[in-house]
Amino acid sequence: MVKRGRIVAFFLLVLLVFSTIGTTMTGITKDIKLGLDLQGGFEILYKVSPAKKGDVIDKKALNSTVEALRQRVDVLGVSEPSIQIEGNDRIRVQLAGVTNQKQARDLLSTQANLTFRDVNDKVLMDGTDLAQGGAKQSFDQSNQPSVSLKLKNAKKFEKITRELSQKPAPNNLIVIWLDYEEGKDSYQKEATKQNPKYLSAASVSSVLTQPDVEISGGNFTVKSATQLAELLNAGSLPVKLDELYSTSVGAQFGEEALHTTILAGIIGIGIIFLYMLFFYRLPGLIAIITLSFYIYLNLVVFDLMHVVMTLPGIAALILGVGMAVDANIITYERIKDELKTGRSVISAYRAGNRRSLATIFDANITTMLAALVLFFYGQSSVKGFATTLMIGIVLSFITAVYGTRLLMSLLVNSRWFDKKPGYFGVKKEQIHDLSKDDGTTVLPTAWDKIDFVKYRKAFFTFSSVLVIIGIISVAVFRLNLGIDFTSGTRIEIPANHTVTQAEIQREMKSLDIKTDDVVITGKSNDTGVVRVVGVLNKKEIANLKDHFKDKYGSEPNVSTVSPTVGKELAKNAMMAIVIASIGIIIYVTIRFEFYMALAAVLALLHDAFFIVTVFSLTKLEVDLTFIAAVLTIVGYSINDTIVTFDRIRENMQKFKSKTFADLAFIVNLSLRETFTRSMNTVLTVVIAVVALLVFGSESIQNFSIALLVGLILGAYSSVFIAAQLWLVWKGKQLKREEQKEVESK
Known about the structure:
Largest sheet: 8 strands, antiparallel
Strand order of the largest sheet: 3-4-2-12-18-15-17-16
Structural class: alpha+beta
Number of strands: 19
Shape: elongated
Strand content: 5-15%
Radius of gyration: 33 Å
């Protein structure tokens, strides 16, 4: 009997989901903060060192510096700056959406402390005596730009002027000085051309009772007077700041990257939806509903957690959709397997859910391990990518397991589909009545003609050749390491026409900047990517930006990395891969067995190394996003392998395995039973990655290439390397045990 109430409940629930998405999506997307790579801005990592001998950089000093920097950023009008302490002596500043990057850069790191002194250089007052926001640009009696100051304590100023007024000239002078690091900041030079520290001096002949002071006669322009006032209002820095790493992105770059990557996401996700609907029919439709809700939930969580959305973050979200499909595919394939044994739709649904849960859980945990390592060892946007990936893993588990099951149960329990297995992608001729079977009957699959085990030596040889080629390639050609690992400066120059290497080199030469490498990219060869040996300073970066903005109409992106940070990033990248591998070995050993863990890790290291080989042969640039891609593949490769091992473990409980032939039968059977799932899973994620590669921003092109290579290799290694290695090792273990039994007799 059909229970119409459940079908009505299903449609009401779907209507509720999509009406919620439709009515709230716009507001949520508007509230999500965009990173500097999507709206322009810059990021700087400072090393904090003592401003004076004897000072100590402790937690208090770092917190004071953060507060001082925050006050300075407030002057710039940046709505949501990110200023964070890292380690024991570093501060990272991210300013997304800042319009005048040169002004912001100068304002952040300038040491500036105003002092009022007598002729004997005795400090009478300093910047702490200024009222909050008490400095502003004004004009003196000759209508020349000046800076007016308002003091906190009028009585203190009155006392000082009373004492000075009683002294004969020139001892009655009050001298205003500005202390800072000489020669570093252009606007300070402009403000004080005659003397870098001296601002003005006035003779005090009477007692001043008003808390107002004017700095004039300092050769000010309106611009320099305004900047000095802003700097004084922001307060002085208690420490010295040195740039270790910086990157800046023009607003035009950010806007273009946002639009192209969103377009790539829409196309990729749309194709995934069509693929699921075609291959899985009714369950595919439910997958579309739950995946839509999965995307919505991601955006809701980003908004609630104030996650800053970056370009790699959007890539992680799109990739997450492809990975979230995996849990649905595991469940749907299990249900199809149960339907083929002659079970009813309800019985197949329950058995499929029960048998797929552990597999989904294990696969998600191992991917989460890689994401956690990426988060703790990643930097900046890579950390954002890891955050987005972790959120996606949790939400995909919730929506795929609970959301899918809720919707599916309403339809299945309505009994309307009891005799309609075709809605689940199962044809009548594929169904076999195994009601009287003892559990050892093997159902036919589409891959029965393939003997995966028979050609294991050929696969091992092929992979060994790949590894040898990789070793030779890395040894001879090495890797084209980006500035993230080698230090230096990287400049991305957008032009309004097609450019050539010679043209870009000529322009760089006119700026007196020696180039290490110039590459022309872009769909119309309209972007020049320049590598520079050494780290450009603030003045050189400012001149470079102004030059190319005048020349081509938009500012270039500039990234700098110091040698110290370059070495640290390289070390952290290696540590991340090692720790992820150890974590996976431990987990898989606990959940399965040591041989499976070892085989899985060797397979994923094989995948990671082949990605390195491809980048070595093609001379593609290796940067931080490359490491993110490798670690993502590490998590994803083990995900695929675990599904295979889970089926091997299940079949070992059904069939006796006393000989190598028994093991070979089990491995072949398991691979045949899971091969469709493996193909569908990798195809859905590949669709997402190819969409990113073809339609997405060029900024993550190398990242997408690394993912694509890794995904294909991951599918290959799970089937032809990991499972086969386990078979060889397990077979040798059986032989040793058999030999011991013979010897004991």
